[in-house]
Design brief:
The chain is α/β, with parallel strands linked by helices and 640 residues long. The protein contains 17 helices and 20 strands. Strands 3-2-1-4-5-6-9-10 form an eight-stranded mixed beta sheet, sandwiched between helices. Strands 13-12-14-15-11-16 form a six-stranded mixed beta sheet, sandwiched between helices. Helix 8 crosses helix 13. The radius of gyration is 30 Å and the shape is globular. The C terminus is likely disordered.
């Protein structure tokens, strides 16, 4: 590592090289990006690395996760990856954990031991969790992601830059209505879900018809669910023909002819949709006689013709039936994207169903990605992103945050550059995650300390230099669970243990009375990360203590609300029956700021929940904004 240290010194300076060699890093994820990242970190002078990943190595990982080999299949990714970087750099202090990063064990104290966290995750929920934990532990984060030829890297530091949740992330839909899957598919994914979770599962595996398919509790969908189960039972009877030469025919004629004929017998269903087309087994079998398609080696990157899909269906149905028949124990085959017979059967039947309903075709490669819930990954993109992460990491640990940037990888043959960058953005002032004061609540005895003790302690702080400016009227929530407010004190005598508020949990404390508040901090909720007591010099731990006051960043006042920031029409706010609130700009002396029955302004609203909801969208006190909130018996819509 001597040469690496010399190179770092020349590029970044002696101080940066020293900080790199002493910094403690946490790498979350040891997959596509993680493998490249761990390799690069170990060869760039970083000497103290801990890697966490829950997964084990799969055959499909080997084409892009180059720290793994075939002999490593089924072993933990983190352990194999860490052993590999130890081989690269024998003197490195590297450790591995096979665990879920969301486990309570990995609390704020655990995150605080690191100088930098690097995310190499493809799981949105886990990325959000790590983002929050880094904010709570006041540890900078390098966030990354790839999808095909696209990639992104950015540095996150609480109070200075945007966090991962400063802007909403699209949520990938993973479940589909049963009626769509069963009767009216309109996209390739609908056909793939049908082929994998309905047809394959009923014929060869354990029943999985509830997975990826949901039904609302209404009469129409309940009837769909009932009919789907009846069809499943009928399909299960077809397994009696398994192993016979007629097996493929009886399955084909059931799902691509008989079931389609039943759908066509309901003309009202096709008034505004293209009707499906029945397929004929004998016609396709005749067409297949002149085909040179080889089902033992189908092309994976091009869509199949109707005849080719038929040939592949016959071949894989026979192969899977033979495998079950040879088992002799009435077993089952679980779908695995790396099982060629299973994947090709799903691809063929999904393709046939797409032809039936006039839907665009997908290749076997694309089917594998969707059926296996795979985010497309390309080794080159992972390598580029990992390299950019290491560059950012060096600047962060050497306290050169101002030199960091958000970088994007975007391949385009018409563009001379594939990597673009922009300065780090400042925090979104309305972000519900990073516009928080993160502190650590240390509790000596969770079974003895009550929620009332915590409330009293928070009020006591108002008389100290660590005043949180929360006032007397506060609310305390944990996730979506309300623990305390002035109108709900049922939990005051319950212990933290009884309330399941243990190590690793977070509670949010919000000031409810924002009238005439001059201190900006008072408008920012406090998030308390629950941790164990800190004992120093052999002393006794305090029953309750709060730490981290000096680490809380300064917050700018919220900008005046604009119409663009108004809640979308249809948001539900609960008011007293028939109340009507009108808020207009008072700059021209119009009607005044607010009217709610006989209330002069929002401050006079008697319904505390209504007032709180208005406050959440920026309508509070005497705010001069153009808004109109019209409340009915059951909902309130916000509009210009």
């Amino acid at each position: 590592m001597m040469r690496t240290t010399e190179q770092l010194t020349r590029i970044f300076g002696q101080e940066a090289a020293t900080r790199v060699s002493t910094a403690r890093l946490l790498v979350v994820g040891a997959g596509g990006i993680g493998c490249e990242l761990l390799k690069d970190l170990s060869m760039s002078g970083f000497q103290h690395i801990e890697a966490v990943d829950l997964d084990t190595i799969d055959l499909s990982n080997l084409n892009r996760q180059f720290l793994f080999q075939r002999r490593h299949i089924k072993r933990p990714k983190s352990e194999v990856a860490v052993q590999a970087i130890r081989d690269f750099n024998p003197g490195i202090d590297a450790h591995a954990r096979q665990a879920n990063i969301k486990e309570p064990t990995f609390d704020v104290d655990w995150f605080s031991q690191f100088d930098l966290v690097l995310n190499a995750l493809d799981n949105l929920d886990a990325r959000r969790h790590v983002n929050t934990m880094c904010l709570a532990a006041h540890v900078p984060l390098i966030e990354s992601g790839t999808a095909g030829y696209l990639g992104q890297v950015t540095a996150i530091k609480g109070g200075e830059t945007e966090c991962f949740e400063c802007h909403p992330k699209p949520v990938e839909r993973k479940t589909f209505p049963i009626c769509t899957i069963r009767s009216t598919p309109s996209a390739p994914i609908h056909c793939i879900v049908w082929a994998k979770n309905y047809l394959f599962a009923q014929l060869f595996g354990e029943r999985q018809d509830d997975e990826d398919m949901t039904a609302e509790e209404d009469a129409e969908n309940m009837e769909e669910l009932k009919q789907l189960r009846e069809e499943s039972m009928a399909l299960a009877k077809l397994t009696e023909a398994m192993g016979s030469p007629e097996f493929a025919r009886v399955v084909f004629e059931k799902v691509f002819s008989g079931d389609i004929a039943r759908l066509l017998s309901m003309p009202d269903m096709w008034k505004h949709r293209q009707p499906p087309t029945q397929l004929d087994y004998d016609e396709l079998e005749s067409a297949a006689l002149g085909s040179d398609f080889d089902p033992t080696s189908p092309g994976t990157h091009t869509a199949m013709s109707l005849t080719d899909a038929f040939v592949l269906f016959k071949y894989t149905a026979g192969r899977l039936a033979q495998r079950l028949d040879s088992d002799g124990q009435g077993g089952s085959i679980s779908f695995d994207k790396d099982d060629e017979d299973a994947l090709n059967f799903v691809a063929a039947t999904a393709s046939l169903r797409s032809y039936v309903f006039g839907i665009d075709q997908t290749s076997i490669f694309e089917t594998k990605a969707m059926a296996g819930n795979i985010i497309p990954a390309i080794a080159t993109t992972n390598a580029v992103v990992a390299g950019m992460m290491v560059t950012q990491a060096i600047m962060v640990v050497s306290e050169q945050m101002s030199r960091c940037h958000t970088a994007y990888v975007s391949y385009n043959s018409k563009r001379s550059r594939s990597v673009l960058s922009e300065p780090l953005a400042t925090p979104n002032p309305t972000c519900a995650v990073c516009r928080r004061r993160y502190l650590t609540l240390r509790v000596a005895d969770l079974s003895r300390t009550t929620l009332g003790d915590v409330v009293d302690y928070l009020h006591m702080l108002a008389e100290t230099e660590n005043n949180l400016y929360l006032g007397e009227d506060i609310s305390i929530v944990e996730g979506s669970r309300i623990l305390y407010d002035l109108d709900f004190e049922d939990n005051m005598e319950k212990s933290m243990e009884e309330l399941d508020l243990g190590r690793g949990r977070m509670i949010t404390v919000t000031r409810e009375d924002l009238d005439d508040v001059e201190n900006v901090a008072a408008t920012v909720p406090v998030v308390l990360s629950i941790a164990g007591p800190r004992v120093e010099d052999g002393g006794q731990p305090l029953d309750l203590d709060i730490e981290g006051f000096g680490l809380v960043p300064e917050f700018a006042p919220l900008p005046p609300p604009t119409i663009d920031e108004a809640a979308p029409s249809g948001d539900q706010l609960h008011f007293a029956d028939d109340d009507v609130a009108v808020v207009v700009d008072d700059s021209d002396g119009d009607e005044g700021l607010a009217t709610l029955n006989h209330a002069e302004n929002v401050n006079d609203i008697s319904d505390e929940l209504a007032k709180r909801k208005l406050s959440d969208i920026g309508i509070r006190g005497e705010s001069p904004v153009k808004r109109r909130a019209v409340a009915t018996d059951d909902e309130t819509t916000i509009s210009e």
